[in-house]
Amino acid sequence: MSTxxxxxxxxxxxxxxxxxFALQAAKHGSVAVVTKRDAVESNTAWAQGGISCVTGPxxxxxxxxxxxxxxxxxxxxxxxxRAIVSDGPARIADLxxxxxxxxxxxxxxxxxxxxxxxxxxxxxxxxxxxxxxGREIAEKLLAAARAEPTIAFFENHYAIxxxxxxxxxxxxxxxxxGIYALAEDSGEIISFRSDRVILCTGGCGKVYLYTTNPxxxxxxxxxxxxxxxxxxxxxxxxxxxxxCLYHHKLRSFLISEAVRGEGGVLxxxxxxxxxxxxxxxxxxxxxxIVARAIDHEIKRTGGPCVYVDITGKPRKFLQDRFPYIYQxxxxxxxxxxxxxxPVVPAAHYQCGGIQTDVNxxxxxxxxxxxxxxxxxxxxxxxxxxxxxxLEGAVVAHRACADIVTHDPPDGASPREYDIPAWxxxxxxxxxxxxxxxxxxxEIRRLMWDYVSIVRTDKRLKRAATRLTNLRREVQEFYxxxxxxxxxxxxxxxxxxxxxxxxxxxxxxxxxxLHYTLDYPATDDxxxxxxxxxxxx
Length: 536
Ligand code: SIN
Fold this sequence. Notes:
Flavocytochrome C3, Chain A, domain 1, binds succinic acid, globular, alpha/beta
């Protein structure tokens, strides 16, 4: 006996994109938020720097658009950039109405929003809540969503796969009809039924050995959408954050770019700045440039890391502006007021994803994607810092408005198609967990060694060969053993890793986040979003 649940809107994921969408959709029908851990666990909650938006007197939409296009290395879609940037102030107002407490300061007796600066921004435009902006936003959105009677939360529920018309045997235009999900506590597979499925599952940092991302970032949405036949774009553009703390225990801890925005300088082990050798913007150049420069310095000097030096700032300033980073560093034995912080680049953000328009529409009817999981064309070949929370909030709002205009819930019941219960077949208990962990480690290590900041055809080929074998093994597990959360994540990791490798192998140029020694020049004939992979 399996359970089927029906909703007008089915949202997968509970970061800024998922919760912003759910809050809007709740005005129009029933909403399920299906999320694989506690709802507060998301990439959003880990965001330190803030949310970029034009609010300052010296700023303008044109400037923000220009900075985004410049960081994106020629592959942003300008109309998408302009639409998202222009909608920003309205979405910031929404967040403030929900109680998000952005930092302010006094200016001539007037309270004004305190704006931070990050790499690639020509002016101060990052709204922040100390150095835990994401947590502040996530908590306020979650409190509002939990108070909505029409939003039901399904936590610790792992989406397995999309249910589509084709999978049910219809040979027509494909349409998404819902998802199967594993309820981790009971082990039951539930069919969630909806004509409006919104993937907001975030990114895939866990594909790499070193990442600033939380454990939930396993590429689930992209992998599921790809398996279902939706178009996936630009997956070669994985952003490496230049400054992840280099520490034997705290491997995922981010040293926010805002630290450099407030005067932190990248230095080598002798304390000498080096970014002037790479870009006129020095430590605040766009991330692709800074991460590549650090990679080069580490290889050149043979040292394990470089350093961010912000010792020029008073201790009190650091404690007030960066309380979380200050204390975490101190607990790790680093006093950032008196010593430089050791850092290395680490996988941070997936700029590609499920191909969508600026309203979150994918290539498949009934399927929408918002936030890091989606590729709208905002980021191009390299995301401008702090544009991601902005995109999540703006596109969620646009997507809901678009859906209720064009695909409104009709309240019709029963639904047109019967969804068969999940067939488990002849399953056995998975007693070879060790193999799963081994495969998990192997994927992350090979992606780090062969598909990170500097690539070559040979390394990509090696990665592809190994991933083909791993994929076969994971598929065998998937069909023969009882499904577990670990197995589902492993399956998504291997599919996502393969999409990154295949996309990277097809780009015979260097641009933004994709840098290959075999094709160091940029090929200006290539338009945005032309690395599209779609399963037929
Ligand atoms: C940071 O705080 O450096 C991260 C901001 C971002 O990735 O947008």
